[in-house]
Specification:
The complex is a heterotrimer. By secondary structure, chain B is an alpha+beta fold. Chain B is built from twelve helices and eight strands. Among the domains of chain B are: 39 residues; 174 residues, MetI-like fold (Orthogonal Bundle); 55 residues. The chains are: A alpha/beta, B alpha+beta, C mainly alpha.
Chain lengths: 378, 393, 402
Amino acid sequence: MNRKTTTLFALMVVIALVLGACGSPTPADSGDTAPIVETVVVTVEVPAAAPAPLPVPPAGYGVTLATVLERGVLICGVNSQVPGFGYIGADGSFSGFDVDYCRALAAAIFGDSTKVEFRAVTAAERFTALQSGEIDVLSRNTTWSTVRDTELGGNFVHTTFYDGQGMMVPTSLGATTLADLEGGTICVQTGTTTELNLADVMAAEGISYTPAVFEDADSTFAAYAEGRCDAVTTDKSGLISRRTVLANPAEHVIMDVTMSKEPLGPMVRHGDDQWFDIAQWTVFALISAEEFGITSANVADAKAAPASPEVSRLLGNEGDLGLKLGLSNDWAYNIIAQVGNYAEVYNRNLGPDTPTYIPRGLNSLYTDGGLLYAPPFR
Amino acid sequence: MATTNPQTAKIPVWRDERILKWIAQIAFTVTIIFFAELIFSNMAEGLSQQGTKLGFSFLQGAAGFDIAETLIEFSRSSTYWQAFLVGLYNTLLVSIVGIIFSTILGVILGVARLSTNLLVRWLSAAYLELMRNLSLLVFLIFWYLGVFLKLPRVKEAIIWPGEIYLSNRGIVFPWGLPTETASTYRTILLVAVLAAAGVGFVLHQRGKRTGKSPLTLLWSFGVFALIALAGWFFLPTAPYMLEFPYVDGLRIAGGKTFTPEFMALASGLTLYTAAFIGEVVRAGIQAVSRGQVEAARAIGLNGFQTLRLVIFPQALQVIVPPLTSQYLNLTKNSSLAIAVGYADLFYVSNTILNQSGRAVEMITLVMLTYLTFSLLTSLFMNWYNQRILLVER
Amino acid sequence: MTHATVLLRPKTRLTPAQWIRRNLFNSWGNAILTILSVWLTFVLARGIIVWVFTTAEWLVIRTNLRLILLGQYPIAEVWRIWLSAAMLSFLIGSTVGVWGWEKTRPVTRRIWVALASLPLVFVFTQTDSTNRLWLAALSILAVAGWFLGRPATRPLRRIVAIGWFIWPAIFILLLRGLTPEEGWLPLVGTNLWGGLLLTFLLTVVGIVFSFPLGVLLALGRRSELQLVRWFSIGYIELIRGVPLITILFMAQLMLPLFLPTGLTIDRVLRAMVGITLFSAAYLAENVRGGLQAIPRGQFEAAHAMGLNGIQTMGLIVLPQALRLVIPILVGQFIALYKDTALVSIVGLLDIVGIGKTVLAQPEFLGLQREVLAFISLLYWVVSYAMSYVSQRLEIAVGVGER
C-alpha cells in the first residue's frame, strides 16, 4: 500500500513537470502547476505516518487514533440542517446534540474539546465520506440498520438517541391518524430510511398517497411550509426541531403515530476496533456520568473525593482504563469537565429551555424508565 | 505533423522518429494501464474491506421506495432496475417536451432579434442577455420555489377558463378519458396518418415534376382531419370523454395533473435553452446573404414567404449542428431535476445509490446512459450533415 | 447593403415623430407588435419595480451579506481576501493601461472609469473603517496600475501577463495559509471556504488547471501517435457526453475509492478536480478548432526553417491558435462560472449552498425570491461583465490580425 502511494505521488510529480514543460510555449507556466504539487504533498503525508502497527493486533487496529493524533484534530461528519442536532448558526458555528458528541470525543482524545473540525456531510455522501477516511466518525442522526452496519462498511457505536418516525401535519388539516391522509401528498427526504418506512407503512395500511421527494432537509421542509404537501415525515426528533423553525410552530402538529424504530447514533469505519472502543466508551462515559450524578460543575470535587470505586475508575484516579483505550487516564474527566454528562448535553440542545425541546422519554436512564444503560467501568 | 525523412537508414536509432514514436506510444500506454490498474486495485481493496463486490445483480432487488411520477407501472415492491427505467422515461419525457417548446420559443426569439421593429428587437435582445448570463441551477430553484410553489394552495386554487386548476400541487387540465371505443379510434387515427402521408408524398412528387407549389402540408392535414373527424362521429360512443378536474379531499382529482416539479423543470429548461436557440437561429439567419432576401423580394415574395421559402431552408444548414448540441445540452441539463425534486434519471439513480450504497455501479450506469444519448445524437448529426450535403448539389 | 443604404437614404435628421414612424409603426403588423411590446414591457417593469421597492424584504440579504459573500471564512483572516482583491484590482488597472489607452474608444474608457470608481461608491455604504480603507485602496490601486502601465512597452506587457498567471497561485496560497497554527499565516480549512468566494475560487482553479490539460488533450487529439489520439478522443467524448453533475458525483463518491486506503482528498479539492476534468474536455475541443484554423503553410514554413515538431507546435502554431480562440475560451469560462453552482448539490457551501442555509434560518423563512434573486444578480453581473470583455477581446484580437 505504501509503495503504491509513493509511486502515485512520483507519477503526479512527473505529470506536473510534463504539464509545466509542455505548457511553456503558452503562458500557462509553472506558476499555475505549483499548487497542484503542493496540495498533493500535504495530503500524502498523512498515510506515510499512519502505519505504526502494534505487534499483535490485526491490520487497521489503532490506525485511526494514530492518524487523528498526528493530525492534531478530529474530523467529524455532522448535519448542518437540523436544529438541536447539527446546525450552522448565523455566526457560522456548529451546534447540536450530535455536534456535542464530537466535542466529547475530541475531549477524550486530546483533552481539549475544541480540537474538532466539523464537516457538514449530505445524506448521500455520509457513508462514502466515512469509508474513504475523509471523516473519522459520522455523527449525523443516522439510523442503525442491518445494511448500514454491514454493507456500507461501518459499525454503529451505540445508540445515543432513541427515536421513531413521525408525521407532522398542519393543525388546520385536522388529521389525527395516517388514514386521514388518504389521497394526500407527503414530503420526505430522499436516500433515508424514512423514505423506505413511509412506503412500507402506507402499503401495509393500504393508504394511497403521493410522495414528494426532496434532496435535503431544508428543501423538504421548505416545500412543506409552502403547502406543497399535506404532511411531512421524518424522525420525531427532526420533526420537533424543525417545527420550531417553521413560520408559526403552533399551526403544526405532530401526529401521535410512530411509524418505525429509529435508533440514532454515531458510526465508525470497519476494521479498527480500538477506534470503535474509544467512540463507544465515550458514549458510556456520558451516560455513566449522569447515572453517578457527576456534572461539569462538580466533576473536580468528584475526582478529589470519589463517591465510589467505580467513579474513581471512571475519573482515572484508580486503575488504567484510559490507557487500555489508548487514551490518557483522565479522558472521561475531560469529557465531563468540558462537555458535561449526557443530561447536560441533552438539555443544552434539546432541553426544556431550548426552542427544540424534546421530552427525554426513552432517552432517560434505565433507572428512570428509559433505555440508557452503560456497562460497568472496570 | 513531422514528415519522415527519406534518408532514415542513416539516422541512428535514438533519433529515428518512427522508433521514437513507438517508444512514446508504448510509454503512454503503459502509464495509462498502470494508472487504470492502480485505480482498480485500490477500489477492489477498498470494497473488499467493506465486504462488497462490484456487480449489477443488486438491480434485481426490491426498491422499497415510492415514486410520484411514473410513465410505467411502479410500486415499492418493484425492482431497482424498474425504478431506473422510470427515471429514464421521465428524463426522455421532460427532454422531448423541453426540446419542442424551446425550439418554438427560440425561433420566435431569433426572428424577433432581427425584426425591423426596434422595440421587438430590444425586448428579444434583453431576454437573451438576461437568460444567457444566469446560472441555470439558480434559475430552476428560483422558478420552482419562487414561482410554482408560491401558487395558491389546493383549496384556493386559481381556476382558469376551461377548467384549468392552478395550485402549488400542480396544474390540472381537463383530459380525455378513453372509453370502450378508444382502441378502435386509435386504429382509425393510424389510418388517417397513413393516408395523409400518402397524399403528401404524391403531391410532393407532383410538385417536383411540375414545379408548382401544391400546398402539400395543407392537403395532407386536410385529409388527416377529415378521416379523424369522420371516425369520431361514426363510432357509436365518443372514443374519449373529457374529464374535468375537481377538488376531492386533499387533492385535485380528475383531469391530467402536471406536478410543479415537472412544470418548473420543463418550463425552466425551455426558457433557458430558448435563449441559446434564439442566438443560434439569429446567427443562422444572418449567415444567409442579404442578396438572397433582396432577390426574393424582387420576385415578389412577401416577408413571411421570404422567411419560409428562402431564408429558413438556407439558414437551416447553419442552424442544425449547433441546434443539435443545444438539444443535447437540454437533455444533459435535465439532470438538474434533483434540485427541484423531479424523478428523472439522475435523481432516481441518486436515490437508488443512497438506498443500496452502490455508488460505483450507479454512477457508471448513469454516465453510460447519458453517453448513449450523446452518441445517438452525434450519429444523427453525421447522417443529417451528409444528407444536407447531398441536397446542396 | 451599406452602400445601398447610403445611396438610397440621404443623411437627414429625423424628427422624433418620423423616427418613431420609421422604426415602430412602418406597417400594420409592426404597429400591433409595438403596442403589444409596450404593454408587455410596462407590465413586467411595473411588476418588478413594485416587488423590488415595496414587497421584497431585503433585510435577509443585509443580515447575511457576509455569509453569502465569504461563507464561514474567519473574520480575523478576511484581510487576505481584501489583499487578493487589491492585487487583482491593480492587475486590472495595469492591464487597461498596457492594452493601449489611446486606442480605447471613449465609451469603453468611461466604463473603465466607472468600474474603477465603483469601490468608492461602496465606501459610503460601509460603517467599518477597515472595510472603507480597503475599498478606497481598490480604487487607488486600479488607478495606480493604470498609470504605471500606460507607457505600454513590451517588457511592461510581459510583466502584466506574468502577473495574471501568478495571481491565481497567490490568491489560493493566501486563502489557504501556510503555517499550521498560531503562525503568521495560519491554515484556513477548506470547510470554511464558502459563498461567492468559493464560487470564484472554483472558477479560477477550474480555468487555471483545465487550461494546460485542455491544450494537451487538443494536441493529443491531433497527435500522430494513434494510441494517444484514441485516448484523447475517448476522454473528450466521454466527458462531453455526460452532465457535469455526474462528474461531480463521481469526484465526490468514487474518487475516494480510487485512492489508496488512508490517502484522502479534501472535498473542495475533489470538486475542483471534477470541474477541471470536465472543463478540460470542452477546452480541448475549442483549442482544436483554433488549431484547425491554422493553415498548413505555417507548418511547412516552420519545418522549412528547421524547427522540429515540438518547436513548430509550441512556437508557431499553438500561439496563433490560442489567440484565435481567446473569445471562445472566455465564453467557456463564463459557462464554467455559472456551472460551479452545481457543487451545491454535492453539499459544498458555494453561493447557492449558502443561499439554501440562509433560507433555512427561522427568522427568514419563505424569502426564497429575495435570496435567489440576489444570487442570480451576482451570477448575472459577473457573467455579463465577462461576456462584455470577451466581445471587446474579439474585436481586439481581430484588430491584431495581420
